[in-house]
Amino acid sequence: MSLRHAVLGTLLAGPQSGYDLARTFDEVMRGVWYARRNQMYGELAKLTEAGFAEEVAEGPRGRRTYRVTDAGRAELRRWLTSTEPDRTVRDETTLRALLVSTLDPPDALKVLAREETVLREELAALRGHVEHVDGSPTDPQVMGMLLRVHTLEALLKWTADATRRFRATSAARE
Questions:
Q1: b/e per residue, 93-131, with b = 16+ CB within 10 A?
Q2: How far apart are CA 140 and CA 38, in angstroms?
């Protein structure tokens, strides 16, 4: 996935400024695609130059608002239907999950408890966003958030299972 396509997909919800896009990435997409705020402005300039987005308004303090063009919709469709995604995953959470078993049970249980807290907080925040999104059940933003909700639920299930396993191992050693 490229930032280009993530921005195009996010703009489908309606005209947005670079600031609006950055906020959406921070609040909604951070578990899927990380982007720094300043990257949004550069990507919007590239999308505009390529004809995939256009500036529709300039507000106070030079705040520019952009929307997807028909060419941008066609590019997003082409990318979704004609290319295979890079399935390489670099996920620090998964790496830590694989390596937590190298710790003594008390340390592993602390790591898992911390992970559970973080996952629950992210899940609660994301569920709050899902409830406030207007649009159809197949709205891209809703679909993406629901995928992340299911992923977080699966991670919480794994964390509970790993915690149970470490507790059982700890009890067997005593």
A1: eeeebeebeeeebeebbebbeebbeebeebbeebeebee
A2: 23
Beta bridge partners of 53: 68
C-beta separation of 116 from 100 below 8 A: no
Spatial separation of the C-alpha atoms in residues 170 and 90, rounded to whole Å: 31
3-82: CATH topology = Arc Repressor Mutant, subunit A (1.10.10)
Integer Cα distance of 68 and 105 in angstroms: 52
CB of 67 within 8 A of CB of 18? no
> Domain limits of the chain?
3-82, 92-173
pLDDT of residue 30: 66
Whether the full predicted model's pTM is greater than 0.70, yes or no, is no
User: Whole-angstrom Cα distance, residue 111 to residue 105?
Assistant: 10
C-alpha gyration radius of the chain = 20
- Digit-coded pLDDT (tens) for 26-50: 776 666 677 777 888 899 999 999 9
127 residue type, one letter? R
Evaluate whether 159 touches 112 at the Cβ level (below 8 Å): yes
